[in-house]
Amino acid sequence: MARVIVDVMPKPEILDPQGKAVTGALKRLGFEGLTVRQGKRFEITVEGDEVTPDRLDEVRDAAEKLLANTVIEAFDVRVENA
To answer: Which end of the chain, C or N, has fewer beta carbons within 10 A?
Structure first.
C-alpha cells in the first residue's frame, strides 16, 4: 500500500498561538534561536502499490475540502516512499 502525506500549516500572515507557546517554552528550557509554527500532519494509506496522478488529485481535493481550512491554512500533499 502506498502512503500520501498531507501537511497543513497556518498561513504566514496568521497568528499561531500554539507555535508561539512552544517557542517560548523552548527558550525557557535554554533552546535559543528556535521559532516554531505548529501544524497538522495526516498520513493517508492508498490502496495499491502506486499513487496515480488521479488518486493524488483526489487526496488534494479531500485536503482542500476537509483537512485544511484554506482561509487560514495552507497544505502540501506528497507521496511517501515505503
So the answer is: C
